[in-house]
Amino acid sequence: MAKQKFKTEVSQLLQLIIHSLYSNKEIFLRELISNSSDALDKLRYLTLTDKKYKKIAFNPKVSISFLNTDKEKTITIEDNGIGMDKEDLVQSLGTIARSGTKKFLEQLSGDSKKDSNLIGQFGVGFYSCFMIADKVEVVTKKALDSKAYKWKSDGKTGFNIVDTKKETNGTQIVLYLNDNGHEYANRWSIDNIIKKYSDHIAFPIELNYTEEVDKKVENKTDQINSGSAFWKKSKSGLKKKDYNEFYKALSSDTEDPLLYIHTQAEGNLVYSTLFYIPKKAPFDMFRADYKSGIKLYINRVFITDDDKELIPTYLRFVKGVIDSEDLPLNVSREILQKNQILEKIKKNSVKKILNEFKNLLSKKREDYTLFFEQYGIPLKEGLYQDFENKDLLYDLMLFKTNKSDGYVTLEEYAKNMSKDQKSIFFLTGSKINELKNSPLLEVCNSKNIEVLLMDHEIDEMVFGGGMHKYKDFDFKSINHANALEELGDKKDKEKDKTNKNIDSLIKKIKKVLDNQVKDVVSSKRLANSPVCVVADSNDPTAQMQDLMKQMGQANFDTVKPIFEINPDHKIVKKLSKMPNNKQFKDSVLLLFDQALLVSNIKIENPGDFISRINGILEKSL
Fold it and tell me: Which of 70, 550, 586, 597 is most open to solvent, judged by the fewest CB atoms within 10 Å of its CB?
């Protein structure tokens, strides 16, 4: 077969991997062993569930050998797993037909530790072998196929695939080491790398080597990993270090996890779960095609790692293992989605995970704050996805407020409420600094009322619909008119009588703004600012309208805001004395645009806004 060129992205990928990961190049062995383990998992499943594969004598293992001579230095990794056919070779080792490849290239930072983490997450680990080899040969035969193939490449110009002979199914990879890889062609280096990265692979990893014994050279084979299902081991015999090492092998992360949760249940249901929370959010957490971080086993037999039903989508950042002893091995994906046993395990697991988060919040507030900054958004998704655990999720929420630079919980907010306060007030927008300086907060600040500041679009979806309550308290958005009515007092009522004197001004302003506003009213919320805009009590806020448009719901008329004016402000008092001329009109329009901008609402005619500012500047100068 003629030599085939690598696709452009693969060529880029190879060069970046070779150069950016050099200082952590030992990960090549971790990645190749992980691939072998996946191939063994797939074949074991088929031998147990598919009659065609039952005739295969399956004794799973990964074998490693090395050659270290003056002429040549090689490392060989071999498994008796599912193997590959020609199409698999082209797709897996020549094309990388995945959307993740481009994303991987964008994410590379030049920090070898961070990038070696990414390489496993993006499923491009095979190419790491070109850091230490100038030639790689892959000999493979797919289970039940009669043909075998050899794939050969120097990692630069392309690859060849030719027919070859191989008696058994599986894959053999031979690495012809370059100067950067010579240090790994010995028993000590291989043994150390496997202990570090792959000790908990659930299949035997054997090292074949020669050793001189009594002046005779003997061939020896040692199993160099523990080769057992880590999650089935007794928790009392495991240390934090053991859990961390297994996490790194499972996830290809180079950092220790923030948290691990190990459950071994016995009784009506017998199952084991081991969940990890990464310190940093997965790169694909907000992608619709995110990869599930949970592997499902049945009696230690790998079933799938591609089922998003194993854990709720709002907990998609959780990585780990579920192993059930009560499910049949030949369970299909459709059956899994409706299986009561798995649903019960899922329900128990979610409760366990959320309670561990709550425990972290109560005992290690700083660690929990870092966790929430990474995962607060998906947890908020849980508030409208998981009604059963809503109260527990409320306890996990953290918020910035107008009275605090740090975070507060809803429990803390409720304790700080004034005696007469009946609602939890919140303000939505796009940036915390803008929210802190919003004129909508002025009356709350003057009356020492705490307001939750919400700066993400998901907050509008979760809290903006008026459907949620925390204990006996309703959530009220102060972006809306009348939200602060319960804070009114006698002074406000007296002010209402005085405000009747500006009725004529309101009429004049309504004529100027015409159909740009729903109403013009005298404000009870403003202390220092002349004007502001709010949404009518039953209308979506400007932020919600933007969100609806982003979601493709653009078939609605833009809802007009209510324009509130502060009758005690000097500018408004001067306006009330002005005749209805061009200067009055320009001043009103300028104040309206100013109110829109402060609320992060796009103004329709920026040119007119600038022209009015320039006109006022010209007169004042």
Answer: 70
